[in-house]
Q: What sequence folds into this?
């Protein structure tokens, strides 16, 4: 009897499972869509809108200019720390700010505010003094956490008016649409 | 006239070497004999002088004896240190493992702790520019922070 002593090659007993090309395509398309959604969401959610107001504080009953409107009662009720009876909005702007770039808001010919969201979850509010023929001069820079701002808190700069004795100016920054108002 | 034997008895009496009966007899004689009492007083005085003024003779220490004493004390001190050493090494071994473990745990805790803000705290000042703010006041109740510039 002839015995086959040749070394036997290993032969597959069954064909390997073939991955369907359509499944790969579906998965890739799904992942690609997810990525697009994420990028879009991030881009959309990167900007936050803040309301910046230049306010005049005075004890006078009427504003110096008819264009000045009274400050909203909700905000005015929160200025109890200050002594003035009435507050009038000189200028109001809404700025969309992100972490990518700062946003500058000119409030008057003497004052501008620069807003920037910092990576540490704070909003930097830098106030600049404007002078004709000169570069804006940063006067002060303070921060407030985005969380506090979104909860309805205000950050403000103020000072005594140099034009009118007894009056004051205020620059009030707050989230345009806070999630929870106080 | 005191016999020699009686004088020796008096000496023995001063030294406390008489038996009870003989001591009683000597005390009976001393009670009536002033001369005997004077002799006893003299003997006691001499005995006291000898005891208090006897010179103390010290044996001179040789160099070998001196250094042997030092060697003996060193050996005693080493024996005491050897007894304490195993206890200290055991504690040190634990400390060798515990110290780095504590350090790693401290780093892990610092990393894991959230760095949230406390409610109602003042702002994190980011004075990257000249700060003209003279005072800052905040009202937690009103949710407002005002930086006053002079």
A:
């Amino acid at each position: 009897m002839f015995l086959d002593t040749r070394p036997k090659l290993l032969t597959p007993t069954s064909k390997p499972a073939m991955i369907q090309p359509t499944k790969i395509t579906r998965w890739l398309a799904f992942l690609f869509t997810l990525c697009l959604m994420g990028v879009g969401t991030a881009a959309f959610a990167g900007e936050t809108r803040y309301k910046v107001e230049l306010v005049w504080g005075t004890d006078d009953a009427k504003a110096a200019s008819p264009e000045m409107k009274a400050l909203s009662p909700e905000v005015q009720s929160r200025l109890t720390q200050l002594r003035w009876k009435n507050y009038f909005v000189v200028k109001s702007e809404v700025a969309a700010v992100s972490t990518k770039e700062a946003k500058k808001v000119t409030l008057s010919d003497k004052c501008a505010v620069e807003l920037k969201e910092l990576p540490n979850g704070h909003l930097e509010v830098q106030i600049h003094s404007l002078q004709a023929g000169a570069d804006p001069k940063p006067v002060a820079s303070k921060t407030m956490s985005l969380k506090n701002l979104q909860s309805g808190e205000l950050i403000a700069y103020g000072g005594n008016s140099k034009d009118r004795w007894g009056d004051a100016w205020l620059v009030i920054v707050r989230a345009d649409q806070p999630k929870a108002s106080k | 006239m005191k016999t020699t034997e009686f004088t020796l008895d008096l000496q023995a009496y001063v030294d406390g070497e008489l038996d009870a009966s003989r001591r009683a007899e000597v005390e009976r004689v001393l009670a009536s004999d002033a001369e005997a009492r004077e002799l006893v007083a003299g003997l006691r005085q001499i005995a006291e002088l000898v005891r208090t003024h006897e010179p103390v003779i010290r044996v001179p220490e040789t160099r070998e004896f001196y250094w042997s004493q030092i060697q003996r004390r060193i050996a005693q001190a080493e024996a005491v240190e050897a007894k304490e050493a195993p206890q200290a090494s055991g504690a040190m071994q634990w400390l060798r493992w515990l110290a780095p473990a504590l350090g790693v745990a401290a780093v892990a805790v610092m990393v894991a702790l959230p760095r949230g803000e406390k409610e109602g705290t003042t702002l994190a000042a980011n004075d990257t520019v000249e700060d003209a703010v003279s005072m800052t006041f905040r009202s937690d109740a009103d949710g407002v922070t005002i930086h006053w510039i002079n």
Observations:
- Chain A is about 20% helix and 35% strand.
- Chain A has a mean pLDDT of 81.
- The helical segments of chain A are 21-45, 73-76, 146-150.
- The first strand of chain A starts at residue 48 and ends at 58.
